[in-house]
């Protein structure tokens, strides 16, 4: 029920027909609600993980603590990073923010490479961008967020 999922499936079918190994990672398909603020998510929510019996650590960052959001008068929202408690691997990211549909892409990329919350926390994000909220939420997984309110 998503255009980008259908596109990935189309590419996979074409690759399989061409004798290559077509592949779609259904665990990492982002979903977006195009409201203001936007809502975007990928992977497991905290509740999904709990239902599967996976112990998680969660980092949250309130968009109101982000400089670009303040300057843009768009301070409503939150970023939440759900990481495996044992390995720190990111299992899911949920975002409510203006620009969430753009920000979720870097979450998908980190998750495709099997990245940890610490990997995101140690990645340099340009300032001032709303995307810094994603880094701060990842830092919050280990309670090291700098700009949290
Ligand atoms: C109004 C609307 C808004 C949407 N907005 C978004 C959005 O903002 N973001 C998003 O991610 N997704 C959106 N979607 C969903 C997205 O469009 C679909 O998930 C996606 O197009 C599905 O692609 P598909 O290739 O699987 O199927 P389709 O795009 O439906 O393609 C199937 C094709 O098969 C053809 N076909 C059917 N039966 C046969 C047959 N027997 N023989 C030959 N051909 C046949 C059809 O004519 C069609 O061309 C929206 C959908 C709608 C209806």
Question: Can you walk through the features of this model?
Answer:
- There is one protein chain.
- With 149 residues, the chain is α+β, with helices and mostly antiparallel strands.
- It has a single domain (28-141), classed as FAD/NAD-linked reductase, C-terminal dimerisation domain (Enolase-like, domain 1), CATH 3.30.390.
- The protein has six helices and five strands, in the order αββαβαββααα.
- It has helices at residues 3-17, 46-51, 67-71, 100-112, 117-121, 132-141, and strands spanning 31-33, 38-43, 56-62, 78-84, 90-97.
- Strands 1-2-5-4-3 form a five-stranded antiparallel beta sheet.
- The longest helix has 15 residues, at 3-17.
- The model has no long low-confidence stretch (mean pLDDT 97).
- The structure holds flavin-adenine dinucleotide.
- Flavin-adenine dinucleotide (FAD) binds next to helix 1.
